[in-house]
Target: ATP-binding protein
Amino acid sequence: MNIKIRKEDIPLPIEELIRQLFLKEWQQELEDQTQHMKAIVAVANELSQFRVHEKESYQAEVNQKIHSLLDKVWEIPEEVRFEEKFESLHSGIKEYIDDQPDEVIELQAAERFSKVEGDSVVIKMAKGTKSGIWSLTTLPIRVANLFRKNKKAPAYWAHIVPAQALLLKHYQSKLASDLISLSDGFYHALIQQYELTKDWQEKALSFSHEHEWSYEEVVSAIDTFHTRTDQLLKKELTRILGEKSKMFCDQWDKIDTLELSDNAVSTQKLEKLKVQSQQEWEQRDLKWRNALYALFEDWRSDLDLYALKHSVLSELGKFNQAQTEKVNQQLFPVIHDIRAFIDEEGTINSKDNLQKELKRIHYQTTKQLDKVLVPQFVDKLSSQIIVNLLNKLELEVVQHVQGLSEEHIIVKNGQYDQPMDKEDFYSISIHELVTFEILVNFQKQIAQQKSQVFSTLSQMTVQAQDIDHIITFSLTSALSSIEEGTEEEEAIKIAIEGIERAKGRVQEIEEGINRLLTENIEMIKSAMDDFVRGIMDLLANENIKELRLRITKAKAAQQAKQVRKQVKDQLLERGQSTWQYLKKNYDLSKSRIQRLSGQFILTAGKPELTKQVSDFLHESQQAIDKLPTIYQRLYEIEPLEDMELFEGREKELESLGKAYENWKMGRYAATVVLGEKWGGLTSFVNYAEKKLKFSHKITRHRFVGNQFSTIDLLAEFSSLLGSSFQSLEELQKHLLEGPKRIMILEDVQNAYLRKVGGFEALEALGSLIAATGHHIFWLSTSTIYSWDYLSKSIQFHEYFSYQIKLSDLKKEQIVNLIWKRNCISGFKITFEEDESLANDKKFQRLSPEEKQLKLSEDYFQELNSFAKSNVSMALLFWLLSTRDMDANEITIGKFEKPNLNFLKSLSNEKVYVLHALIMHDGLKINQLCLVMKQTKQQIAMILSALREDGIVLLTEEIFMINPVIYRGVINLLISKNLIH
Model:
């Protein structure tokens, strides 16, 4: 079919499609990236509006915001298929080509028969032959024209133009590769502008004046970039389409001639060309996006480091402020009160009776300084205010470091304005860099400072303890001098000199505190400067390779150490389990033999009168008393308020959380938490309150005194809830009609007596829980041995859906709970080599570090075996294990289970009293009489003997088991089958 068509017009609709669907895709991308840049600089500009003294914390926040903006835009690049990205363009072009004629027959142009510039030698020769043949074939027409009035021009030969195939070649098969230069220009301009934006943002956040562009100027520059790039895209596309149109028309004329065979547009070749062209575009596009991704990764890495820098500097500011506030609130007011007292009483009035005046001052000094102000001051000094703040600062810095991204992609040379293969990427962990290279040094410096602060505060504590004694001693000396006949003026001089020395001591301590604060701030600032300097060094990519090599070595050494430790732990665990099995069977056999032999007069064991009890307890107390007061305070047996010292209990917390969630869904979920005395029950409840973040009001009460009647129970709830209840029904109605709430009842073992009628309060409490359990979330605690008894005697456990028993702590948890406290103190711990290891060749071959590791493992293995889940026992016997202490170091001796064999010599009467005290968590003497069904005189004699030996302690009229031998008493009662 011969159709007359202008070849120049054929591609026009396709070119319009390309402008609409291809160019607009890049224009939209340009718009999105421009807005993204503006969002980044807008966030950075926020900082200039902020107060300078808060800039560090705000800089960290701004860095995080920018980081989030970068995270939203670019992910790890994956190859995108050209036809998928421009699906509408592809389908539009295909639809248009399908509507065009398959072939067009046209006469060849004159240029096809004559030589033109650019023809090869072969083509020129071929054209000569072709022209000659054409001349011969058209000779008759030209001869006839000699005789014709109207000449007839000889026609050139026709050729068949494969119109669709030519369109496919130029506007489909070759389209992708022909458009590469446009995307090249886009990415190149985009990356350059992002680098300028990054540079401005970094200088803006660092308050640098190297770049004086204002925010408005930067936004204007981004708009200029948008306009310039848009023009560049349009210009480049016009150039590309012009060249394609020219090439299309040229090949339209030449196809099916000597110059271009129609085989050039065969289906097979066009398909192959299409695949190659699109692959070329796809690979090029991926490489550009790799470059942009690498830039963003480097940017994110820098933001991480800057955010870390500003975060830790912000923590430094908070530390400085908190240190000043804490000291001003807690230490200086007491110092002021002490100084005011000394100033007020320091003026001795000699007009009246001097002896009377001196005795009055002595009495007031004892009453005010000795009993109140000095103990308060010593307590504040030993409360680890500054060390706790140092510990908190260290923890905050560690948490910020842990928040760093694990991996980032960087390019060593830092050049991103060219396409990149993924092989050009260099992966690095910023988290590991900081952890292994910088954080370790920072923690060492903090540990040294904590040790120094601890030592200084210990010295101040000793100095403070003598303030009142200086005055009282001088007053006593003055009184004695008067009695010896000294003149009053001389006696007054003696008294005043003592008072002045006390003033000087107070002044010295105050100056020491101020000096400590200054030195502490300077040292922490120095450590923080080193930390920040190390962070900033990581911004130079050329340092990365060397650092990564050091990290690899450090990690390999650490992993090797962990493997050795795991092997040792497994061997120790197996050996320990085997030993426990053998020991258990040995003890069982020994116990049976003793019981049998005890049945015969000649072999029956006889109790020995011994001083082992009091000697052991006296030596234990002496060992503890040698330690500084502030160190003892760290290991006090009391519930935790500072949850940073809490350790473990994840499963128990999860169970409690599940119970609470079920209750919120309307289910009955009364819960009891069980554990040993001093085993951390109250600390766990404190921890749960903070971690679970209960959404209902909490009412908390601790049972004390073993009041066992229903009237006693109603009185306690009346006081607790602020209403008077005359009956259990009134209390139940009050709870059900009130708002939903959480009732935490601690130590329910203190609400009964083991006697007839002694379970009234608990039975009433159980009924109350059962009746209100869907409206009130009941959470109780109890010691485990009392609970077992109550479960068997009155089935008290039936009232609780959840029974959460505090499980035994693992060795690692025992280590952590002790190590956390020691970390606060700042002391270095050294474990003493036992004499038995002197001849152990294998041990002696170890390095000092490995020796300490083994000694530590052995110590905690034994300690955990003894203490089990009882946190207080572990802390107490850690203190008892101290052998030596200096300003910076504590030496810990080998842990040996205390020899409590003396408990076996106790009479049955004493054992039954101890059993009653364990079951009731302590009793008053009259209550013990009721439980034991003995007279007060009989019980008093037994308690007196036990107290004299130190087995029981008296605290506020309540007799308790001495914590030092609590574990031994438990084992004794288990051996006698009194508890299980």
Observations:
- The radius of gyration is 45 Å.
